[in-house]
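so the lab meeting is tmrw and i was supposed to have these ready like two days ago... anyway. pasting both below. for each one the top line is the aa sequence and the line under it is the structure tokens. i havent really looked at them closely yet so no promises
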Amino acid sequence: MNSLYLSPGEVISAYCAGSEKKFRSSALRLLLLGVLAGAIIAAAAAASNTAVYGISDTWTLRTICALLFPFGLGLVIVTGSELFTGNCMLPVALLDRRGTVGQMLRNWVLVYAGNLLGALLVAVLCVFCGQLDYSSGALAVYTIRVGAAKCALPFGNAFGLGILCNFLVCLGVVAANSAKDTAGRLMGAYLPVCFFVLCGFEHSIANLYYIGAALLAAAVPEYAAQAAEAGVNLSTLTLAGAAANLVPVTLGNLVGGAGLGLLLWYCHIKEGGTAK
């Protein structure tokens, strides 16, 4: 009888084999699938914000976000879209002689650009089509507050929280890819992402929405006035502040994802005796 799941070694071998398709894909395909993944993650972030903007208790707020947001990664996996953070494990394909450094960097750049476009598209629609008008603009104030707080994170904190985040996200990718049915794939992706959201770790692609939507909302005079009245510090919410978050978080995500992938490859492929 066939097993209902793949072993860790089989998962990593399948990931390495699948990486060849990622490396050979056209630029347009990678960009479009990146847009789809970015929009999915942004929609999950927008939904989480909408669910909790009126809650002041941190435990309740984080728990609700952790229950909702993880469906984003599940949808990315079942749609076959391209998410930068999941692709941070691509260095294992190089060790398995499936591609080159140039192909890996090309994938990262195109997918990240697509994720950026998708996330910003959702942010633009939410801000300028009235989605943030809930409770007379209270959702807009919350959105601005979240983005400003992320821009204020020190470099070291953002980098470390980025490592922890993508360690868990890539565990979700591994767990999802170990299942052979849709329900198993969704559950495998769900729990590790639930953990990272609950703990408040930093995800670069989600932050493209959180910070992007905050910047756009702060550019709307009515929203900006409400945020200032609510005591939100808008001084950090700038393009420079966005870069101050996204650069270390992205680097941390790379370290967390690549580190997990390399560890699993070494233990289950190289030392496990199933190398190509």
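ok protien two:
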Amino acid sequence: MTQLLSLTIKVWRQAGPDRAGAFEICRLHGLSPDMSFPELLDVLNAQLTREGREPVAFDSDCREGICGACGAVIDGLPHGPERGGTLCQLHLRHFKDGQTITVEPLRARAFPVVKDLVVDRSAFDRIIQAGGFVSVNTGSAPEANTLPVPQNIAEQAMDAAACIGCGACVAACPNAAAMLFVSAKISQLALLPQGQAERARRALAMVAAMDKEGFGGCGNHRECEQICPKGISIRSIARLNRECLRAAAGGEE
């Protein structure tokens, strides 16, 4: 028979971006170890509602580790203590009965708190809008073998494209840098033939947008790589630096 859990949740509550926040302690009982963390928050909100209290605001969407919408810091770690997964892939079986769990929003100046655990990650959207796309009109889809791509290059591009923009890398970085995110979005296009036409402009525009949003600089601490749920390597940051140097030197697009 599955043993049910009792947990104490120390959750961050903040009514709005201009309001002071504080931790609130809630105790939950009869929890299945197979629950995901967003399901735990659902149970918490149901209990708060029954008590006539304000539910905790948090982000989630697909709850399958695909969309990158969910995000919170669990006991000091974005997405929680289990590596290689998002918050919705973190299950209660990884916690002990009677444990106290601290839950707070992703912390970064560029991710202002909207309410409780919800932060504004639209800075990522504006970076993508600055150049994270291919704007050349190619017409209908070309025949697959028209632009041959070596297997190792295709695999590197796909690895970079796995980034879901969850923001965990920013929250984990001591400098709140967005270099892993930006480098992944630049790499996935710089490696492929379709991304060559706007290669230099893309690198300079996206880095400029990143700096404008107030993200910090990369200090090679590698927390971003360790916490990334999709395993994005900091090798993509080295590629970003090369792309920027190439563009600044007047490299051909």
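from a quick look at the 2nd one: The longest helix spans residues 37-50. The beta strands are 5-13, 22-31, 73-74, 77-78, 100-104, 113-115, 118-119. will dig more after coffe
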